[in-house]
From TrEMBL:
<feature type="site" description="Involved in the stabilization of negative charge on the oxyanion by the formation of the oxyanion hole">
    <location>
        <position position="114"/>
    </location>
</feature>
<feature type="active site" description="Nucleophile">
    <location>
        <position position="190"/>
    </location>
</feature>
<comment type="function">
    <text>Catalyzes two activities which are involved in the cyclic version of arginine biosynthesis: the synthesis of N-acetylglutamate from glutamate and acetyl-CoA as the acetyl donor, and of ornithine by transacetylation between N(2)-acetylornithine and glutamate.</text>
</comment>
<keyword id="KW-0511">Multifunctional enzyme</keyword>
<feature type="site" description="Involved in the stabilization of negative charge on the oxyanion by the formation of the oxyanion hole">
    <location>
        <position position="115"/>
    </location>
</feature>
<keyword id="KW-0055">Arginine biosynthesis</keyword>
<feature type="binding site">
    <location>
        <position position="153"/>
    </location>
    <ligand>
        <name>substrate</name>
    </ligand>
</feature>
<keyword id="KW-0012">Acyltransferase</keyword>
<comment type="pathway">
    <text>Amino-acid biosynthesis; L-arginine biosynthesis; L-ornithine and N-acetyl-L-glutamate from L-glutamate and N(2)-acetyl-L-ornithine (cyclic): step 1/1.</text>
</comment>
<dbReference type="InterPro" id="IPR016117">
    <property type="entry name" value="ArgJ-like_dom_sf"/>
</dbReference>
<dbReference type="GO" id="GO:0004358">
    <property type="term" value="F:L-glutamate N-acetyltransferase activity, acting on acetyl-L-ornithine as donor"/>
</dbReference>
<protein>
    <recommendedName>
        <fullName>Arginine biosynthesis bifunctional protein ArgJ</fullName>
        <ecNumber>2.3.1.35</ecNumber>
        <ecNumber>2.3.1.1</ecNumber>
    </recommendedName>
</protein>
<feature type="binding site">
    <location>
        <position position="190"/>
    </location>
    <ligand>
        <name>substrate</name>
    </ligand>
</feature>
<dbReference type="GO" id="GO:0005737">
    <property type="term" value="C:cytoplasm"/>
</dbReference>
<comment type="similarity">
    <text>Belongs to the ArgJ family.</text>
</comment>
<dbReference type="InterPro" id="IPR042195">
    <property type="entry name" value="ArgJ_beta_C"/>
</dbReference>
<feature type="binding site">
    <location>
        <position position="402"/>
    </location>
    <ligand>
        <name>substrate</name>
    </ligand>
</feature>
C-alpha cells in the first residue's frame, strides 16, 4: 500500500466540483458534487440516532435498494434534519435536479447535508447550485480538495487522503474526504465521509469491508458526547481499475481492507483533532485487556470524559480523572493493577503504577501534554488485547462556537 496525494478524485473515473450556493454562508463555498463516469456499487453506514435527517433516510433507501450510484450531492450550512415530509421531499427534488443535470437515473443520486437542524432547505438555491456543479466537475486533485473544503461547517481544515494498492497486476486506488468538528461521538457523529475506489468488487463485499472498519475508526472518536442526526459514510466502487474481482476473505480483500482502514482512520483522527475549539488531538490506548470489547469500552470512556479533556486542555496530568472514567465505563478490571502513561513527541512518562501515583516530574508531564498530539496509555494487565480511541481537548472555544452556532 502506498499513501498518495488526493481525495475523492484520486481513483480512476471520479470527478468533483464545488460552488457557493448561498445556502447559509455568504462568504464561502457550501456545495460539493462527487460524480463517477461509470455507475458504482455503493455501501453505507449511518447514524444510530433515532432522529435521522432526511438525507440519511434517502441514502439508506438508495443503498439498501442495490441501485447503482453515480453522483453524491452534498451541502453544508443546513442539515435538513427534523424537517418532516417537506424536507424529505427536497431530497427527491435534489435527486431529480442532479439526474437531469448529469443525465443519470434519479435513484443513482446520494445526498449529504450538514449544518443547522430544523431549518428547511432553500431548494431553489440548491438546485441552481447543482447546475453549476455539473458544469464545473472534473477529475483533478484540485477539484477534489475544493469539494472537501465546501462540505466544512465549523471545521478549520479540509480532510482528505488517498492510497494505492495492486490487485492482479492492476493499480487500485482508494480516496476519501470527510467533514466533522462538533456533535461528534461514538456511533458516528456530525460527520460526513465519502470514499471512492476504482476497484472491481461486489456490493456485498464492499459493504462488509466498510461495516467491518467503521467500528474501529469513526466509532472510536468523540468530541462532545453528542451523536448526530446526519452522520453518513458512503463507499463507492466503479470498477474502472479493471482488476480481477476482489473476493471476500481473499488476500486481495485483506489488502483492500487494510488500505480502506488507513483512509478511514486518517479521516477519523482528523475529525477528532479538529474538534470545535480544540488545540490537541487526544489519543487513548487501552492495553493489556482480556477482550477487544473491554479495551474499546475503557478507551472510549476515557476519551469521552469532559473532566479528562479539560485536563488535557490545561496540560495537567490529572490522572485521577482517567482512573475515574475507567471505573464508571462498565468494564471490569482491578484498579490496583492499572499503569498509566502519557506520551507525545516530547517524550513518555509513567504517571501511576498499580493504581497509585509514581514519583514523576509535573514539569515533564506538562511539557509532554503541551504537544498538539497527546496519547494516554492505560494498561490493565489482564491480557493481550487493546483498542484505540481519539478525541480532543475541551476548551473555552467549544462554548464560544456553539453558543451562537445558528447566528
Amino acid at each position: 500500500m502506498e499513501i498518495i496525494k488526493g481525495g475523492v478524485t484520486a481513483a480512476k473515473g471520479f470527478e468533483a466540483a464545488s460552488t457557493a450556493a448561498g445556502i447559509k454562508y455568504k462568504d464561502r463555498t457550501d456545495m460539493a458534487l462527487i460524480y463517477s463516469q461509470a455507475p458504482c456499487v455503493a455501501a453505507g453506514t449511518f447514524t444510530k440516532n433515532v432522529v435521522k435527517a432526511a438525507p440519511v433516510k434517502w441514502d439508506q433507501q438508495v443503498v439498501g435498494s442495490g441501485a447503482k450510484v453515480q453522483a453524491v450531492v452534498v451541502n453544508s450550512g443546513i442539515a435538513n434534519a427534523c424537517t418532516g415530509a417537506e424536507g424529505f421531499g427536497y431530497c427527491k427534488d435534489t435527486a431529480v435536479a442532479a439526474a437531469k443535470a448529469l443525465d443519470i437515473p434519479e435513484d443513482g443520486v446520494l445526498i449529504g447535508s450538514t449544518g443547522v437542524i430544523g431549518k428547511q432547505m432553500p431548494i431553489d438555491k440548491l438546485t441552481a447550485g447543482i447546475d453549476v456543479l455539473a458544469g464545473k466537475k472534473n477529475d483533478t486533485l484540485e477539484n477534489g480538495t475544493e469539494a472537501a473544503k465546501a462540505i466544512m461547517t465549523t471545521d478549520t481544515c479540509e480532510k482528505e487522503l488517498a492510497a494505492v494498492i495492486e490487485v492482479g497486476g492492476k493499480q487500485v486506488t482508494i480516496g476519501g474526504m470527510a467533514k466533522g468538528s462538533g456533535m461528534i461521538h461514538p456511533n458516528m457523529c456530525t460527520m460526513l465521509a465519502f470514499v471512492t475506489t476504482d476497484a472491481v468488487i461486489a456490493k456485498e463485499t464492499l459493504q462488509k469491508a466498510l461495516s467491518g472498519d467503521v467500528d474501529d475508526t469513526y466509532n472510536m472518536i468523540s468530541v462532545d458526547g453528542d451523536t448526530s442526526t446526519n452522520d453518513t459514510v458512503i463507499l463507492l466502487a466503479n470498477g474502472l481499475a479493471g482488476n480481477p474481482e476482489i473476493v471476500y476473505g481473499s488476500p486481495e480483500y485483506e489488502e483492500f481492507a487494510l488500505a480502506l482502514h488507513a483512509i478511514n482512520e486518517y479521516l477519523a483522527k482528523k475529525i477528532a483533532g479538529d474538534g470545535e475549539g480544540a488545540t490537541a488531538l487526544f489519543e487513548v490506548k487501552a492495553v493489556g485487556c482480556e477482550s477487544v470489547e473491554q479495551a474499546k469500552t475503557l478507551a472510549k470512556s476515557i476519551v469521552c470524559s469532559n473532566l479528562t479533556k479539560t485536563a488535557i486542555a490545561g496540560h495537567d496530568a490529572n490522572w485521577g480523572r482517567i482512573l475515574c472514567a475507567m471505573g464508571y465505563s462498565g468494564a471490569q478490571f482491578d484498579p490496583e493493577k492499572v499503569d498509566l502513561f502519557f506520551e507525545s513527541k516530547a517524550g513518555k512518562i509513567q504517571i501511576i503504577e498499580n493504581g497509585t501515583a509514581v514519583d514523576y516530574s509535573e514539569a515533564e508531564a506538562t511539557k509532554i501534554l503541551s504537544e498538539p498530539e497527546v496519547t494516554a496509555i492505560a494498561d490493565v494487565k489482564m491480557g493481550a488485547e487493546e483498542a484505540v480511541a481519539w478525541g480532543c481537548d475541551l476548551t473555552h472555544g467549544y462554548i464560544e462556537i456553539n453558543a451562537d452556532y445558528r447566528s
